[in-house]
Design goal:
Blueprint (H helix, E strand, L loop, with lengths): L13 E2 H10 L2 E5 L4 E6 L7 E5 L6 E2 L1 H14 L17
Antiparallel strand pairs: 1-5, 2-3, 3-4
Length: about 90
């Protein structure tokens, strides 16, 4: 989500539940605000450890434009960048 390729118009959308799971895996908890607004709180970031976003609706997928906006907020408030993350490969159970 931090690269131009990830937010290019031709990129597919990301499921909201997958994004929430990734944020939880990164140590964030989700707090429901009013309406579709939610905040992701990270205890390890002092003072500025909250990123607020609106859950996409009626389609529950995050489009590339919203993804880029979320990435900017994460960079600004959590100070995370592309190098902060490791891409995981899903293992397939036999």
């Amino acid at each position: 989500m931090f690269t131009p390729e990830a937010t290019h118009k031709k990129t597919g959308c990301i499921a909201w539940k997958d994004f929430v799971a990734a944020m939880a895996d990164a140590g964030c908890s989700m707090v429901q605000k009013g309406g579709s607004a939610v905040s992701f709180v990270h205890q390890g970031v002092k003072g500025i450890g909250t990123v607020s976003v609106h859950r996409p609706h009626p389609d529950s997928r995050i489009n590339p434009i919203l993804l880029k906006d979320i990435a900017r907020k994460i960079e600004k408030y959590f100070r995370w960048t592309k190098v902060s993350f490791v891409e995981r490969v899903k293992s397939v159970d036999p």
